[in-house]
């Protein structure tokens, strides 16, 4: 089991500045209205630092990085 | 009423009635003297700041000729090289690479650690003003605080700080509309001197790194992403200039606003807990950056008007901040205003990197003066500097 980080967006707080997609284009794209889309929320280790900066740069603190343990198989 | 006229002192003194007229005229109003489309509504300003069909530069996609623009004359090159390599005038991928490297220094957490230093400096400046019986609030409090803070962050030694303000002022002259040849010549000279100074400082820090942002930029290696020396110089100039110009003007314009609303000033003195919403309201009520431009990289449509690639839109922050569609009774100063989505810090990928620092400085500066000088009074009505885009007073004479 490994510990990794998950990107989460507070959809109510998000105001669509798009800075996160600019700072972390590897993981975040924008939809047609300018709101972030995160197809894969697990942050690879080599992108952790960039992910933390994208989180810190969000003008409305809507992006979060949660540590989570995974590797345990869930049903399905 | 004075119509929109950035070169008219009467308009600069009070642009708000003209903004209301512009909002009534439409969503995109052509302004021939600058060949810009003026955008006066909050919804549109807010949306276009986030719109990737617009950019602060076009040179990452088009040549000057392809974009239908005349390249700047070669003698202006020192200014354009300096300005064009700064974060604020870059788009992805260069913007991404550089913002990643500098963002760490400006996160809310990093800035929070500076708060005690900023507060004690603000108190000292306020106490000095009181000890003098008053003076020029701009020169004695509003200016020295942010200049010292940003210079300290970058590691500019105190004895080197005197030319920073004149260099910045000369460079900022180019951000006004249709700058003349004398303005350009002064900006070019300041760009050369400022760049030369910073190249020397970078060389010193390469040899002996310190605990400052210049050393951090030299040392930055994020997955192989680094800054060229020109990018480092441009970033430092941008941080130094943007790190104080707007804060100085917000402080001084804010105090001038307070003096014109004595009942609100009295309420703020009686209830210091109002300060956080008061600072946001002062940022809204009279923003230091009145206009922010974007190039149209792909055709857009605004209220039935097609604005083609190659155009320039001028987003009117002061107007957006007074748009009744978003602010109840926008002409009224309400220091307790809770719902306050002002655009003073911009929006989108160029959202003010220094916003957390600016808030710490403004809270410290207004707080210190309110406490140290409970009877602060205006000595005489101030006058506005000629600039419209970066709008501020020449001085603010006060007594205690």
UniProtKB/TrEMBL annotation, chain A:
<protein>
    <submittedName>
        <fullName>Ferredoxin</fullName>
    </submittedName>
</protein>
<dbReference type="Pfam" id="PF13459">
    <property type="entry name" value="Fer4_15"/>
</dbReference>
Automatic annotation (TrEMBL), chain B:
<keyword id="KW-0560">Oxidoreductase</keyword>
<keyword id="KW-0479">Metal-binding</keyword>
<comment type="similarity">
    <text>Belongs to the cytochrome P450 family.</text>
</comment>
<dbReference type="GO" id="GO:0016705">
    <property type="term" value="F:oxidoreductase activity, acting on paired donors, with incorporation or reduction of molecular oxygen"/>
</dbReference>
<dbReference type="InterPro" id="IPR001128">
    <property type="entry name" value="Cyt_P450"/>
</dbReference>
<keyword id="KW-0503">Monooxygenase</keyword>
<protein>
    <submittedName>
        <fullName>Cytochrome P450</fullName>
    </submittedName>
</protein>
<keyword id="KW-0349">Heme</keyword>
<dbReference type="GO" id="GO:0020037">
    <property type="term" value="F:heme binding"/>
</dbReference>
<dbReference type="InterPro" id="IPR017972">
    <property type="entry name" value="Cyt_P450_CS"/>
</dbReference>
<dbReference type="GO" id="GO:0004497">
    <property type="term" value="F:monooxygenase activity"/>
</dbReference>
<dbReference type="InterPro" id="IPR036396">
    <property type="entry name" value="Cyt_P450_sf"/>
</dbReference>
<dbReference type="InterPro" id="IPR002397">
    <property type="entry name" value="Cyt_P450_B"/>
</dbReference>
<dbReference type="Pfam" id="PF00067">
    <property type="entry name" value="p450"/>
</dbReference>
<keyword id="KW-0408">Iron</keyword>
<dbReference type="GO" id="GO:0005506">
    <property type="term" value="F:iron ion binding"/>
</dbReference>
């Amino acid at each position: 089991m490994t510990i990794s980080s998950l990107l989460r967006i507070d959809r109510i707080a998000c105001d669509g500045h798009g800075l996160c997609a600019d700072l972390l284009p590897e993981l975040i794209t924008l939809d047609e209205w300018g709101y972030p889309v995160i197809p894969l929320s697990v942050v690879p280790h080599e992108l952790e630092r960039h992910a933390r900066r994208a989180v810190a740069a969000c003008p409305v603190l809507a992006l979060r990085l949660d540590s989570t343990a995974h590797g345990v198989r869930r049903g399905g | 009423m004075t119509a929109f006229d950035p070169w008219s002192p009467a308009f600069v003194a009070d642009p708000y009635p003209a903004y209301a007229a512009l909002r009534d005229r439409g969503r995109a109003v052509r302004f021939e003297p600058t060949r810009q489309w003026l955008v006066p509504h909050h919804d549109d300003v807010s949306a276009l700041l986030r719109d990737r069909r617009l950019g602060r530069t076009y040179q990452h996609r088009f040549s000057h000729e392809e974009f239908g623009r005349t390249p700047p004359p070669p003698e202006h090159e020192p200014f354009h090289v300096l300005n064009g390599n700064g974060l604020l005038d870059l788009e992805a991928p260069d913007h991404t690479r550089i913002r990643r490297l500098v963002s760490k220094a400006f996160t809310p957490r990093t800035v929070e650690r500076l708060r005690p230093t900023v507060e004690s400096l603000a108190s000292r400046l306020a106490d000095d003003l009181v000890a003098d019986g008053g003076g020029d609030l701009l020169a004695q409090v509003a200016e020295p605080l942010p200049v010292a803070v940003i210079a300290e962050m970058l590691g500019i030694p105190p004895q080197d700080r005197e030319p920073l303000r004149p260099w910045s002022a000369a460079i900022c002259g180019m951000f006004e509309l249709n700058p003349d040849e004398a303005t350009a010549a002064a900006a070019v000279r300041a760009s050369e001197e400022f760049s030369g100074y910073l190249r020397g400082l970078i060389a010193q820090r390469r040899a002996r790194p310190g605990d400052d942002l210049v050393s951090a930029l030299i040392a930055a290696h994020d997955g192989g992403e680094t800054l060229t020396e020109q990018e480092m110089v441009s970033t430092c100039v941008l941080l130094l200039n943007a790190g104080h110009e707007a804060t100085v003007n917000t402080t001084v314009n804010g105090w001038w606003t307070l003096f014109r609303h004595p009942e609100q000033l009295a309420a703020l003195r009686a209830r210091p807990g109002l300060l956080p919403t008061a600072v946001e309201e002062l940022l809204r009520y009279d923003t230091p950056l009145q206009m922010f431009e974007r190039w149209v990289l792909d055709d857009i449509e605004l209220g039935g008007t097609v604005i083609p690639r190659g155009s320039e839109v001028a987003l009117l922050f002061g107007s957006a901040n007074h748009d009744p569609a978003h602010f109840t009774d926008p002409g009224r100063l309400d220091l307790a205003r809770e719902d306050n989505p002002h655009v003073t810090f911009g929006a989108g990928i160029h959202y003010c990197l220094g916003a957390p620092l600016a808030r710490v400085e403004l809270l410290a500066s207004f707080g210190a003066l309110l406490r140290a000088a409970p009877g602060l009074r205006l000595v005489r009505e101030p006058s506005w500097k000629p600039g419209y885009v970066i709008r501020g007073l020449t001085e603010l004479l006060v007594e205690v």
